[in-house]
Design brief:
- The chain is an alpha/beta fold.
- It folds into two domains: 162 residues, 3-Layer(aba) Sandwich (Rossmann fold), CATH 3.40.50; 135 residues, Up-down Bundle (Zinc Finger, Delta Prime, domain 3).
- α8 crosses α9, α12 runs antiparallel to α14 and α14 packs antiparallel against α15.
- The relative contact order is 0.10.
- The chain binds zinc ion.
- Zinc ion binds next to α3.
Length: 344
């Protein structure tokens, strides 16, 4: 994998390649952008290009250095990421980095330390790292990645060259899935939309066998929303999607939150498609082409203002997930509010 394999981040890659070409390498970088858009890949490629035996601007992917970095066994390139039950980067991690970075390079040209998801550094770890950033050892480069720079100490941000990474255009994710993973075109279109511009998320979703099941259940619930009691709908959803009779009991709540969030994202795409069928007919492409027939059956069940109300409810419920409201309560509220809206 070289810089050429990073899709949708032309500006960031151009900036890095220019720095490499002109030998203007910062002692510290901060790659900022959503998860799954190529920050870690770019960090590894920067480490490779800095140490590559054959090229100074882009990694060759053939020399011993490039191969060792790809296999995570190069002694001069280290990768630090959040670990432990609290998923954090601790002061011990950074102390070890400070010791190692002070040594000369073993076999490469530059020591490169990649600190992934740097927003998970404890405050003690961040303050310890600050000392290294204030007096950077020669021949070393620190590459931090983070979802956003506001969650880091501003004293850290100000000592790094910030390189922004963007969400990837959906059509590029779609063609990547079709071309490199043989995903069916309509499924690739759906996954790209659900991924919200994160290739990492799209690659996870493509292997999620539950997606068709969740989608079918959502369509079933929409078709019965007006005539079924909420307790039954919640019960069925728990059983069929969460494999449990309650969205919390005895299981990992974090896992439920993720699944519920994914389900709400899927519900949003279905509602958006129904609104499109009502307004524009066939002219705007549907996200859920695979269930076009089922969507058409729902087209006349709800008015546009009801669908708008549903979408607002879904947005509210996503906020509740963020604020750690119990998934069971969220599900109950979701169907209750939607039903209220459908009866209005
Ligand atoms: Zn190389």
């Amino acid at each position: 994998m070289s810089f050429n394999d990073i899709i949708g981040q032309e500006t960031a890659v151009k900036l890095l390649r220019n720095s490499l070409k002109h030998g203007r390498i910062s002692h510290a970088y901060l790659f900022v952008g959503p998860n799954g858009v190529g920050k870690k890949l770019a960090a590894i490629n920067l480490a490779k290009a800095l140490n590559c035996e054959e090229s100074a601007e882009i990694s060759c992917d053939r020399c011993v250095c490039c191969k060792k970095i790809d296999a995570s066994i190069h002694p001069d390139v280290k990768y630090i990421y959040p670990t432990g039950p609290s998923l954090s980067i601790t002061i011990d991690n950074i102390r070890e980095l400070r010791t190692q970075i002070s040594f000369k390079t073993y076999e490469g040209k530059k020591k490169a330390y990649i600190i992934a998801e740097a927003e998970n550094m404890t405050i003690q770890a961040a303050n310890c790292l600050l000392k290294t950033l204030e007096e950077p050892p020669e021949n070393s480069v620190l590459i931090l990645t983070a979802a956003d720079s506001h969650s880091l100490l501003q004293t850290i941000v100000s000592r790094c060259q910030v390189v922004p990474f963007n969400r990837i255009e959906l059509h590029r994710i779609e063609s990547f899935l079709v071309k490199h993973h043989g995903v069916d075109k309509s499924l690739a279109h759906f996954i790209a939309n659900l991924s919200q511009g994160s290739l990492g998320e799209a690659l996870k979703l493509k292997d999620d066998a539950q997606i068709p099941l969740v989608k079918a259940k959502l369509m079933d619930i929409l078709s019965r929303l007006k005539n079924e009691d909420v307790i039954t709908l919640v019960g069925e959803f728990n059983k069929e999607v969460f494999n449990n009779d309650n969205a919390e009991r005895g299981r990992d709540v974090a896992e439920y939150r993720n699944k519920l969030h994914m389900s709400l994202d899927m519900l949003t795409t279905c509602l958006r498609d129904i609104a499109i069928l009502k307004q524009a007919g066939e002219q705007v492409p549907l996200i859920n082409l695979d269930i076009e027939g089922e969507l058409k059956q729902l087209e006349n069940k709800f008015s546009l203002s009801q669908i708008d109300g549903f979408l607002n409810t879904v947005t509210d419920m996503k906020m509740h997930i963020k604020n750690n409201v119990s998934p069971q309560l969220i599900l109950e509220r979701l169907f209750l509010d939607m039903q209220g809206n459908a009866d209005a």
